[in-house]
Structure formats: structure tokens, C-alpha cells
Amino acid sequence: MKKGCLIITVITLVAFAIGIVLVYRVFFIPSGIEIDKTKYPITGIDISKHTGKIDFKKVKSQSFDFVFLKATEGENYIDEKFENNYLEAKLNAIPLGAYHFFRFNKSGKVQADHFLSSVRGKSFDLPYVLDIEKWGNLGQTEKVVVIKEISIFIKELEQNTSKSVMIYTNESGFKEYISGYFDDKKIWICSFNDPPNIRINWTFWQHSHKGRIEGAEGYVDINTFNGDKNEWEKFLKK
Q: Whole-structure pTM over 0.90, yes or no?
């Protein structure tokens, strides 16, 4: 009897949490801001299962320069659209990257091993990305523990791939978990300030969560690269 009540309680809490996320996505996610594309001409998107079905041929025809795909989350979750999105993007020769959503209360090494297993055998044009956000990380975990596990994740990934990890975060996440701890890493910043309010140069800037483009069933996040076309070509060659 007690076990049945516990299961019902857990299911109820999970359903409640999912409901909160859905309400937030529909009603509270900021649309974003427009930026000067004469200054920042390189534009791309990042997507996950929430974007729904994507026609990458149409995406490429709109002159998007890159796509980041959600690959994994935590210790065992794989985005259900990752494999198909990867194959379709490759078929259309779109410069590609992959990211992992970091769970604060999980092992950095186990999360890194999980991400590595999901990208093994695949080729990417852009750095691997570690997504650091308080949003979506339920419960409290000490800051010192989070930073330690982030460091372990990065070390594990870089030792096994010989590629430098880039960090995605928002302005508050940058100030709390990244600034002063991972200053040597490239930063992909989510910000609705122009320019982003962080103390170091960013590499990518996510400035909209509600992009609408032809070929994408749902919203896409809109991003820009910090440089012109020549700098973009050099970045890809690295």
C-alpha cells in the first residue's frame, strides 16, 4: 500500500514539473531581440526534440550557417531527434555541433562518458558544448560541487577527443559558475542584452528562443557568431 502511494506521489510530482516547464515554454520564454546583422553576418540555430520535424534542405536554403544539436542530458538521456537530425544535417552539408545539458546533481565523469558514447563515430565541424543552466536543474546542489563536476566533465571530454569544450550558459550562469573558473573556454552566451553583459568575449550569442523559420515545425533558438565571414571560415578550419 505504502509503495503504491509512493509511486503515485512520484508520478504526480513529475507530471507537475513537466506542466511547469510547458507553461514556461509557452507563456514566459522571451521572444528575444534583433541584432545588427551587418556587424554579425553569421547566423545559425540550435534545436532539440522540442523543435519537432525539420526539413534541413529548407533550413540550408535560408542561408543559415550552422546548427547545434542537443545530443544528451544527465547520465543517460539521449534527445530522441538527435540521430535523425544529425543524419539530415550531414546530408545537407550544414556545419554542425552537438551539446550536452549538464545535470548539477550527477557525476561529471558519467555524464561525459554518456555524451562521448552518443557522438562516437560522428563528425562535427564545431566544438562540443557543455550546457550549464540553473533552469531545469531541480533541487539544491552546492556551488563548489557543481564547479568540481563541470571541471571533471570537461577534462574527461578533452582527454578523450583532443577538442576544447565550449560552454553554453546565460548571464547569471556565467557569473555564478563560469567566471573566474573556466575563463580559458570559449563561451556561447544566451542574452537578451545588446551587447551581452559578460566580462569576456563571447564566441556565439543566442539572442532568441522563439525563432520561426521555414522547414522547422516548432520554435528554434537563433544564434550569431562573433565575427565576419572571413573569421567564420578560419574558425571552421580550426
A: no
